[in-house]
Amino acid sequence: MLAFAAGKKTDAVAEAGARARQQRLTKPAGALGGLEAIAIRLAGLQGRVCPRLERCHISVFAADHGIAAAGVSAYPQAVTAQMILNFASGGAAISVLARHSSARFEVVNLGTVEPLPAHPVVVARVLGPGTADISRQPAMTEDQLGAALDTGAGRVDQARGANADLFIAGEMGIGNTTSATALAAALLDRAPETLLGPGTGVEGRG
């Protein structure tokens, strides 16, 4: 989640004002839990005591992960393409939330094993039929990685250019838990087993 600030730094005055405002609202102090902290942080990022979320942009980045071939998922890779179409047709929870909040919503397809038909909600940025199996070789080439990062930056720039108040990024793809854990393990220098448990519907060796 990325809030577009009025300036480059957090506005401490707006943040303090938002914190004071929370204390004046008709509710017990801290009753909204983490939501209060988010509202205060958002106020500081936007430079407004009362932050606004009138123009939200949601991008779900989707692709297949080659590691799925190693049996780490209970579902076949064809489900990724099916889920993208479900998102695009408004059948997923994020689609409903986007619709009710009047957010601009898109799915960015970076590459699936199953080909996808054109759809007005799906932005095609295909880098290949998913990534390679990281248990056997690098998941992506350096060029693919650069193109993927550029795609993400491009969607943020587009949202900023449309004067969005908030940019929300999500991702989906069969095998994504394993890929995310591999990245986290490498970046945090942690053993994979300390970062995750069984995935959805996965049992035994998977």
Q: What can you tell me about this protein's structure?
A:
The chain is an alpha/beta fold and 206 residues long. The chain has two domains: 2-46, no CATH class; 56-194, 3-Layer(aba) Sandwich (Rossmann fold). The chain has six helices and five strands. It has helices at 12-24, 34-46, 78-88, 93-100, 142-161, 176-188, and strands at residues 2-3, 56-63, 104-111, 122-124, 166-172. Strands 1-5-2-3-4 form a five-stranded mixed sheet, with helices on both faces. Helix 1 (12-24) runs antiparallel to helix 2 (34-46). The longest helix has 20 residues, at 142-161. The protein is globular and about 55 Å long. The two termini are 31 Å apart.
Briefly, what is this?
It is built from 6 helices and 5 strands, in the order βααβααββαβα.
